[in-house]
Amino acid sequence: MSSKPDASRPRAADTKKVHIADTQMTRHNWYKHVNWLNVAFIIGVPISGCIQAFWVPLQLKTAIWAVIYYFFTGLGITAGYHRLWAHCSYSATLPMRIWLALVGGGAVEGSIRWWARDHRAHHRYTDTDKDPYSVRKGLLYSHLGWMVMKQNPKRIGRTDITDLNEDPVVVWQHRNYIKVVLGMGLIFPMLVAGLGWGDWYGGFVYAGILRIFFVQQATFCVNSLAHWLGDQPFDDRNSPRDHIITALVTLGEGYHNFHHEFPSDYRNAIEWHQYDPTKWTIWTCKQLGLAYDLKQFRSNEIEKGRVQQLQKKIDQKRAKLDWGTPLDQLPVMEWDDYVEQTKNGRGLISIAGVVHDVTDFIKDHPGGKAMIKSGLGKDATAMFNGGVYYHSNGAHNLLSTMRVGVIRGGGEVEIWKRAQKENSEYVRDETGQRIIRAGQQVTKMPEPIPTADAA
Ligand SMILES: [Zn+2]
Ligand SMILES: [Zn+2]
Questions:
Q1: For residue 313, how far is its CA from the centre of ligand 1 (angstroms)?
Q2: For an engineered disulfide with 157, which of 10, 121, 257, 317 has Cβ 3.0 to 4.6 Å away?
Q3: Can you tell me which family this protein belongs to (predicted)?
Q4: The domain over range 327-420 is classified in CATH as 3.10.120.10
Q5: 151 or 211: which carries more pLDDT confidence?
Q6: Which tens digits make up the pLDDT trace of 374-414?
Q7: What is the pLDDT of residue 154?
């Protein structure tokens, strides 16, 4: 009901405290909707870097350092912020946590505490209004709109971050976030290039500013591209998707459909040949004694999800096919009536008590017109099932589409039993569609009937 007050909205009493994000954006107030600090970090700083790059020559050593530092800071987000702190998919020793908190801070994407809280909300409330970067609000919104535009923090779904508050590294990084950003985002990469080979300005512009821009855009793709591009092998009810391109861009976070299904698995890619350098880094750190308790879902559980999704796809495909009128919806015919109609020129053939109108098919019968005509007006069950020719699975399927009635009489009990089987639960999919498996068509006899008198 539209008149019912929304619990998540402020009540009338405190309307003066309405968050700007909950008001209509107009020509006059649009600038109030913008988070200018984030605009400066995400858009302003990169633009300044691009401008400076015009007169700062790029040295080879600086370029290589910028790429290396790109990977370090990117892994700070993927292996640190994401898989360690947001999902606890493994445990890390203190030196490794300090290292990840530092390089992750160098990616300039907020503190671990803030990032992981939003990310947990994203997993818990995927695609809903409580998802801080719901792709349902648009691809651009999920990429950076959610940071550029102000959000009412009360709208973001609640999550438990008590574990993060107990991690002194997380708390320290949160309290000293600006120092970490300046130190690891700009000063450290500049120092390495400056002290290393005297390229102070290049280190600042390329390994600092522009590298930040690339790391940000790459890891933002986990929220946008990974919810937009690719396949859904495990569940298609929500937006997360798997794609190699997203994986390449995000240091292996591109198998996002898997990730949303099994978020506490330290892997995103489960096949050895899939690109997941974050997983390889965590694994290597384990060998070095820096990481431990790497969590992994049993392949039995993973394959169950995959099979269920495949089954869903098959059900959808099956529903589009013509499997013939269900037996219990067919009219009951007297045997004499059946014979009579055939005599009057209607191409009816009874197989296993089911009457089929093959009038239009006689000329197309692969075994020739004469063969099919010889069965008209008779009980052709045996002929069809090996007496003359043991018809293929395809033939039984095709035959079912020509059903027009069911014979009353001798075969009745048998036929109704089969009709019940065809309608019983175990041969229906979850949408209620009948599942007709190969060899289980009602017209099919379990064993070929021997050619006693084929002629
Ligand atoms: Zn996601
Ligand atoms: Zn995640």
A1: 22
A2: 121
A3: Belongs to the fatty acid desaturase type 1 family.
A4: yes
A5: 211
A6: 999 999 988 888 888 888 899 999 999 999 998 886 454 45
A7: 82
Q: How far is the CA of 182 from the centre of ligand 1 (A)?
A: 28
pLDDT of residue 268: 96
Q: In the predicted model, what is the mean pLDDT of residues 18-35?
A: 83
The whole-chain average pLDDT of the chain stands at 89
Say how far apart CA 258 and CA 255 lie, in whole Å.
6
Tell me how far CA of residue 151 lies from CA of 18, 58, 115, 120, in angstroms: 12, 38, 14, 16
pLDDT in tens, 337-353: 999 999 998 999 999 88
CA 169 / ligand 2 centre spacing (Å):
20
Q: Exposed e or buried b for every residue in 409-447, given b needs 16+ CB within 10 A?
A: bebeeebeebbeebeeeeeeeeeebbebeeeebbbbeee
Q: How confident is the model at residue 2 (pLDDT cuts 50, 70, 90)?
A: very low
Q: pTM of whole model > 0.85?
A: no
What's the 87 CA to ligand 2 centre distance in angstroms? 7
378 vs 198: CA distance, rounded Å: 98
Distance 393 CA to ligand 2 centre (A): 47
Q: Quick one: the chain helix, strand, coil %, rounded to 5? A: 55, 5, 40
What's the gap in Å between 281 CA and the centre of ligand 2? 17
The confidence score (pLDDT) of residue 292 equals: 98
Ligand lying closest to the C-alpha of residue 133: 1
Average pLDDT over residues 97-104: 98
Backbone angles phi, psi at 355, to 5 degrees: -95, 130
Report how far ligand 2's centroid is from the alpha carbon of 127 (Å).
Answer: 13
Report the Cα 11 to chain-centroid distance in Å: 37
Which ligand has an atom closest to residue 83 CA?
A: 2
Q: Where in the chain is the domain with CATH 3.10.120.10?
A: 327-420
Q: How far is the CA of 119 from the centre of ligand 2 (A)?
A: 6
Q: How far is the CA of 88 from the centre of ligand 2 (A)?
A: 10
**Residue 391 CA, ligand 2 centroid: distance in Å:** 53
Distance 154 CA to ligand 1 centre (A): 20
At 258 the pLDDT is 97
Nearest to 403 by CA among 344, 342, 340, 326: 326
In angstroms, what CA-CA distances link 232 with 77, 119, 227, 279, 309? Answer: 24, 20, 10, 21, 8
Q: Quote the ligand 1 centre to 122 CA distance (angstroms).
A: 7
Cα(227) to centroid of ligand 2, in Å?
Answer: 12
